[in-house]
Design brief:
By secondary structure, the chain is mostly beta strands. It has 2 helices and 11 strands, in the order βββαββββββββα. The structure holds zinc ion (ZN) (2 copies). The site of one zinc ion has 6 residues, from α1.
Length: 141
């Protein structure tokens, strides 16, 4: 476990979590690209997250399963989470210290536009793969 600290661009929201994974996921889905201007880069974290400046967190329910958290002051994307669960995908870009982090997975690879691509070897999941993972994996641990 690594204590990871992050904050938005303006500092109105900070967070800290004891994160097990050092894997960074990139999501290429159309919603993430609109929200983050490119692929949304996150670290999956199952467990509590301690926030400061919670009043400044805006929450947008873009889909039935997910909730997107952002800073209401500066607009930074902070997390995607499963509604009603302590299961987060925390913004990798918000992290103060990125040591040890590694791009490992690309989600919704079938939705990736042709104008960019990541180098290196990553596990790639299609929209269908990811839907199956969420329905089977979200409540199993
Ligand atoms: Zn902010
Ligand atoms: Zn996405």
């Amino acid at each position: 476990m690594t204590v990871r600290r992050g904050q938005c661009l303006c500092g109105a929201v900070t967070f800290v979590a004891d994160v097990a994974s050092a894997n960074v996921n990139a999501c290429h889905c159309g919603m993430c690209r609109k929200w983050a201007t490119g692929p949304m880069m996150t670290i999956e974290h199952k467990g509590p997250v301690t926030f400061t400046g919670s009043d400044n967190i805006g929450r947008f329910h873009a889909s039935q399963s997910g909730e997107r958290g952002f800073c209401k002051v500066c607009g930074s994307s902070l997390f995607w989470k499963l509604r009603g669960e302590d299961h987060y995908w925390l913004s990798a870009g918000a992290m103060a210290d990125t040591s040890g982090l590694k791009l490992a997975e690309e989600l919704f690879i079938d939705a990736k536009p042709a104008y960019y691509a990541f180098d290196g070897d990553t596990k790639k999941m299609t929209s269908a793969d990811y839907a199956a993972f969420l329905s089977g994996g979200a409540s199993s641990e």
